[in-house]
Amino acid sequence: MKADHYDEFGASYDAENAGSLLNAWYERPAMLRLAGDVRGRKILDAGCGSGPLSAELRDRGADLTGFDGSPAMIELARRRLGDDVPLTVADLAQPLPYADGTFDDVVSSLVLHYLEDWHPPLTELHRVLKPGGRLILSVNHPLVRPLLFPDEGYFGVRQFSDEFEFAGRPGTLTFWHRPLHAMTDAFTAAGFRITSIAEPPPSPDTPVELLPPRIASGERTAFVCFLFFVLEAR
Question: Which of 22, 79, 99, 167 could form a disulfide with 12 if both were Cys (CB 3.0 to 4.6 A apart)?
Answer without folding.
Answer: 167
